[in-house]
Design goal:
Length: about 150
Amino acid sequence: MLTSKHQHLQAEPCPVARAVDVIADRWTLLVVRDAFDGKRRFGDFQRGLGIARSMLTDRLRNLVAAGIFEVKPASDGTSYQEYVLTSKGSQLFPLIVAFRQWGERHLFDEGEAYSQLLETASGEPLELMSPTTVNGRTIRPEETTVRKVR
């Protein structure tokens, strides 16, 4: 059963509000990040994050219900299950990269070490993400407007 808060946000005409309702929780975002890093099993998520079993169970259940993960039999033929990103879940990659790049720029002291996301083939870091127009021009926040729904 949906809570009144959840029902309200799913009726919200703002895409940001709806997305926040589904994925904007510390543990949920870190589970998605770990999935992009190759984790697929409950135990791997739990060990990597240090999250309580009940909390991880809740987050994974919600991610499956939202269509971000699907549960599949383990790829190694064991009796385990794996949580695999769906196409919808894979489309969260730019969000994770944007969070990472913002954190790199604003949350580390100069010279402080941090994990890096590199292109596998070249070993090079990714270019800084930036919103662009359909014509490829980088755009600043003050150059945008939101057309509200009444």
